[in-house]
Fold each of these.
Amino acid sequence: MGHGGGGQLSAELVQHVFAPAFGGEVLADLADSAAVTLGGARLAFSTDSFVVRPLFFPGGSIGDLAVNGTVNDLAMSGAAAAFLSCAFILEEGVELSCVARVAEALGAAARTAGVQIATGDTKVVESGHGDGVYINTAGIGLIPDGVDIRPQRARPGDVVIVSGDIGVHGVAVMSVREGLEFGVRIESDCAALGGLVATMLAVTPDVHVLRDPTRGGLAAALGEIAAAAGVGVAITERDVPVPDEVANACAVLGLDPMYVANEGKLVAFVPPEHADAVLDAMRAHPLGARAAVIGECVAEHPGMVVARTGLGGTRVVDLPLGEQLPRIC
Amino acid sequence: MGHGGGGQLSAELVQHVFAPAFGGEVLADLADSAAVTLGGARLAFSTDSFVVRPLFFPGGSIGDLAVNGTVNDLAMSGAAAAFLSCAFILEEGVELSCVARVAEALGAAARTAGVQIATGDTKVVESGHGDGVYINTAGIGLIPDGVDIRPQRARPGDVVIVSGDIGVHGVAVMSVREGLEFGVRIESDCAALGGLVATMLAVTPDVHVLRDPTRGGLAAALGEIAAAAGVGVAITERDVPVPDEVANACAVLGLDPMYVANEGKLVAFVPPEHADAVLDAMRAHPLGARAAVIGECVAEHPGMVVARTGLGGTRVVDLPLGEQLPRIC
C-alpha cells in the first residue's frame, strides 16, 4: 500500500522503476504537472487516478475529486485547466444509478472549475475485480507567459504561505470510513484552485513554487520542494492553520495533521518582496480567506524541513514513508 | 460487462449517462480522440484505460497496448502523438518485478512510437480490489494543417480500406487465456500507427475518416461511422483480409472475425480520386503491406453496414450489443 501513498515509497517507485523504463526528462521534473511545448503553445499536462472509498463522503465525492485533483495539478504550474479526459473503470454489477450520480458530480465540478470534459473511455472489469468505480482524469491547460512555477525555483528568503486550513479533506473521508467513524461532522473542503492561483498571479507572475499538499499532506509537499531545490524549509508549527475538529480527530487517531491529505489547499513559495501583496490577494478570494504565512525558505539544512514547535524547540519533519490513510484520493 | 465492450451498450452509457452529465460538445463528437484548440494550437486529445488479462500475451503486453492504444486514437485524427500521461493502479501485493516488466514494455513501446511520457501517477488499492495492474494513458498531439478527419466526413463514393489482417490481436490474447487455449500460436499485431497515417496524409490531407477497429472489431468501427455520417457502408466479405489461423480459431469458438478486437490496424474512408495512391502508399509501409479495399461508402441504407457474402447474398452487419471477448485492451 505504501508505494501508492505519495511518500518515500512512492518516490522510490518512480525513481527506480518508472523513470528508468520511460527515460523521460520531463517526468524527472517531479512537479504535479509537466510543462510541455506543442505547436508553439506552452502547456501544462497532468494525470491522476482516483480510488477513494467511500465514493461519497461529507462535502464531496470521487467525481469532485477527479475534476479538482487534476485541475489543481495544472494550477500548480500556473495553468488554467482547459480540457479534461475522463476514464472510468467500472466493476461489473455496480449500480448504474451510482455511476450516474458520480458522473453528475463530476460534470458539476467541471462546470464550477470552468473546464471542459473533452474525451473519455469506459472499461468494465469482472465482478470481484476492480472496486465499484475507479476514475482517471488527465488535463491540459495553457501556462501564461512569464510564469515559471516549479519546485526547483524555491530560493532562500521565499515566504511559505498556505491557502487555508489543512487536514480537512483527509479527516472528512476518514470520518465516514467503516470502523473509523467518530463523533465529528467534518466536510471535505475539496475545491478547484484555478481561480485562486489566477488571483495570485495577477499580483506577480513571479511566484516561485505552488504545490497542492494531497497525499502525504503538507509534510510531503514541503519535503519534496526542499529536496528538489536543495534548500531548507523552516516552518512554525503554531502558524499552520489546523481546525480544532481536525486536531481533535487526529489526536484520537494518533495522526499528525501535517501528514493528512488535502484537496483544495495549496502551499506557495513567494519572493519576500511580493509576499504581503500575494497574501492579501489570497485572503480576498473565497478559497484563500484563511491563508497564512507558515514559514520561510532557508539556506541551512538543504533538503530538510524543520518545524519550530510550540514549546520553542525544533523537530525535523520527515517525508512520510508510506501513507497514514490509504485511498483518500 | 457489455457496457464496457465498445458496442451498443457502451454507446448507450455514453449517450444516456455521461454526455448529459458532462454536457460537452466535444465529447458528443464520438471520435477516437477529441480535436481541441489551445493557445492557437490544434490538438488531438484522447484517453484509454487498459485492463487486459493476461498482462503478457504472445506478441505484446498491457504496456504495449497502453502506448499504442492512445497513440492510435490520436493518429485517427491525423495527429502524431507527442506526449503521453501514464497512470498505474496497482493491486497491493503485485510483484514489483512484474510492474517493472510492464513499465519496461511501456517505455520501449513509447520509444518505438516516438512519443514522450511526460507525466504519471501511481495508486495502490488493497489486495483483492483491483486486479494486478491497470493502466490509463492520455495523449496529446498536433493535428496537421488542412487535416480534418472525423467519422462525420464519410461521403458516398468514399473507398473503404483496411490496413491489413483483422482479428489477430483479439485471437492472440484469447489464445492464452485460461480455459480458452487452443493449438495455434498467433502473435498480437499490436503496433503504433502514427507513421502509417503520416504516410497516407503525405499522399493527400483529404482523408475523410480513420478509425482503429479495437473493441467491437471492424463491425463496430464501420457501424459507428455509418451512423455518425448518415451514410451506408457496403463491404465485400471475401475482400476483408482474415488470416487462416484467425478464421479457424473463430470457427472453433463460434466467433465472427468482424467483431474481434484489433490494435495496430486501421480502416480508412478515402475519396475515390485518391484511393489508389493512398493504397499504394500504405502497401509500401511495413504496417500496411496487406492493406486492401474492402468496400465503399454508399447513399443507400444510411446508418447501416451491409456485407456481400461469399455466396452472392447480402447480410446486415449489426453493431455488436456487448463484446465477444472481454478485457482484450
Amino acid sequence: MTTAKPEHPVTPRTKDEISAITNRLKRVEGQVRGVQKMVEEDRYCIDILVQISAINAALKKVGFSIAERHTKHCVSHAVQSGQGEAAIDELMEVLKQLSK
Amino acid sequence: MTTAKPEHPVTPRTKDEISAITNRLKRVEGQVRGVQKMVEEDRYCIDILVQISAINAALKKVGFSIAERHTKHCVSHAVQSGQGEAAIDELMEVLKQLSK
Amino acid sequence: MTTAKPEHPVTPRTKDEISAITNRLKRVEGQVRGVQKMVEEDRYCIDILVQISAINAALKKVGFSIAERHTKHCVSHAVQSGQGEAAIDELMEVLKQLSK
Amino acid sequence: MTTAKPEHPVTPRTKDEISAITNRLKRVEGQVRGVQKMVEEDRYCIDILVQISAINAALKKVGFSIAERHTKHCVSHAVQSGQGEAAIDELMEVLKQLSK
C-alpha cells in the first residue's frame, strides 16, 4: 500500500480557521517589517533583538496550534484507519524541528 | 551616574551592514507571506509547519548575528569604559528570550 | 464521565524499553556528574557550556522518544476510544514545555 | 600571536561560586535519577516528560549563569587586552548550541 503525501488536511480548514491563522501571520508579517524599519533607522541592537524574540514566540505559537489541529484531525484519522505509525513519526519529526 | 537607554548602537551600522540585515528580513517577510498563502490554499499541515520552522531558524540566525555585532561593539565599548556589568546583564537577558 | 489522571502508560513498557531509556538516563546522569567535576576543577567556562548543551540535547532526544511512544500508544488508544481531544491537549502542552 | 585554548577562567571561581554551581548540578543529578526511577516504575509518560522539561530548564539556567560570568570575566578581559573578537565568536557559538 502506498501512501501518497497528502496535499490537504483530512478535514478541510473552515473559513474561520483559515482567517484566524492568516490574521496571526499578517501580524507576524507586520512585526517583521517593523524590525526592518528599526534596522534601517539603525536602532539599538537590544531593542531589535527583543522584537525578533517576540516574532519567534508568536510563530511558535501559531506552529503549535497548527500541530494541535493536525493531531486532532489528520493524525487521529490515520490512527483510526490503522496508519497511525507513519503519521506520528511525521508529526514528531516536524515538532523536533519546531522546538529547535 | 545615570545611563539613559541608548537609541542607537555605539558604532553606527554601515550601509552594507544595514542592507545585509534588511535583505535577510525581507526574505523572512516573503516566507511569512508564503505561509499565509499555504494556509489560504488549505495546504497540508506538516508542509506549513516545515515552513514555520524554517522561518524561526532564519530569524534566530539573524538574531544571533545582531547579538554578535552588539557584543563586539556596544558591549565591548561598555566594558572598556567600565560599564560592562549592566551591558552584559542586558545582553544575557535578551539571549535567554531568543533561546526559548 | 470522569477521566482520572493515569498512573501508567496504556501499554506497559517492556523490560527492553525500560532498560533502553534508563541506560540513556544513566549516561545523562554520568554527564551531569562530569560537569560537576569540571566545575570543581574550575575548568574553562566554554568547555563546561559545551557539555551542558550536549546534556540538554541528549535529554530532549529522550523526551521526544518518550513522547513518540506516548502518542503511538496512549494517545492513539484515547483517539480510538473517543477521548482524543483531552489526550492531545495534554500532549501539546508538554511538548511546548519541552521545546523551550 | 597564538592563543592557546585556556584551561581555566581568567578569574578563578571562588569556593562559594563553585559550591553554588555544583549544588545546582547535584539537584539536577537527583532529578535525572528521579526520572530513571519513574521509568523503572513504568510511570505515566506525561509525568516523565514534565520532569525532563524541568531538568532542561534547570540546566539551561545554570548554563546561562556560567555564560554570564564568563562574559563578565573572560570575555571582558579579552576585550580589554584587544582579543575580544575571538572570545566573542567563541561565546556566540556556544550560546547557539545552548539555545537549541
